[in-house]
Design goal:
7-stranded mixed beta sheet; alpha+beta; 7 strands; 4 helices; Aminopeptidase; 181 residues
Length: 181
C-alpha cells in the first residue's frame, strides 16, 4: 500500500478512480464543498470541473490509496475552511479555531478492495498529511454501524480505535469525532 495526496501530478489517478466501475463520478467529492456561483448547475461534469479547480489551485482535497501502483481508495481530507459546514447548522462551536482543523468528509474504496483493511491505514495517512500541512486537529463525522445512511463518512468504531474522541452529533446519525495531531 502507498498513499499520496491528490495534486496536479496525481489528479489523473483521482480521475481514474472516480470514473472507474462503481466510482463516485456522480459527486466528484463536491457534496460538502462550496461551488463557485458561476457554475450555476451541479451536473457531474460541472462537479468534476470544480474539483479540478481546487486541485489546480493548490487546495488540498484528499489522499489516494494505491495497491500495486493502482489507485484503489480515497479519503477526502482538507482544511475545514474549504468545506461547507460539516458540523451542521445547529452546532455551537466551543471556540476552536477552524484554521487549524482538517476534516475527513468521506471515503471510497474500489469494490474489489473492500474488506482488505484499507480504511485504517487510509485514515492514518490522512492524519499524517493533515499534520504535515499544519493541522492541529482532525475531525471526522462517522456513523454507527447500523446507520441506514452516511456510511461513506466512515463508521464510528474505526475512528474510536484510532483514538478519536466524540465531541458531539450532527443530526441524529453523524458523530463529530476529534483527534489532536
Amino acid at each position: 500500500m502507498r498513499f499520496l495526496p491528490v495534486t496536479i501530478d496525481t489528479y489523473p489517478d483521482f480521475v481514474q478512480l472516480f470514473e472507474g466501475r462503481g466510482g463516485p463520478k456522480f459527486c466528484w467529492c463536491m457534496v460538502n464543498r462550496p461551488m463557485e456561483p458561476q457554475y450555476g448547475k451541479t451536473d457531474n461534469a460541472t462537479k468534476k470541473h470544480a474539483i479540478s479547480n481546487y486541485v489546480s489551485g493548490g487546495t488540498p482535497i484528499g489522499v489516494l490509496a494505491y495497491v500495486d501502483g493502482e489507485p484503489v481508495g480515497w479519503c477526502s481530507i482538507a482544511p475545514m475552511a474549504t468545506y461547507k459546514n460539516l458540523r451542521g447548522a445547529k452546532y455551537v462551536s466551543d471556540g476552536d479555531d477552524i484554521e487549524d482543523v482538517w476534516s475527513i468528509a468521506c471515503f471510497f474504496i474500489r469494490t474489489d478492495h473492500r474488506r482488505d483493511g484499507l480504511t485504517t491505514p487510509l485514515i492514518e495517512a490522512a492524519i499524517d498529511y493533515a499534520k504535515a500541512n499544519g493541522a492541529k486537529m482532525v475531525e471526522a463525522y462517522p456513523v454507527d454501524y447500523d446507520s441506514p445512511s452516511y456510511s461513506y463518512m466512515g463508521r464510528i468504531g474505526t475512528f474510536e480505535r484510532l483514538g478519536f474522541e466524540e465531541a458531539g452529533m450532527v443530526g441524529i446519525r453523524r458523530h463529530i469525532m476529534r483527534f489532536n495531531v
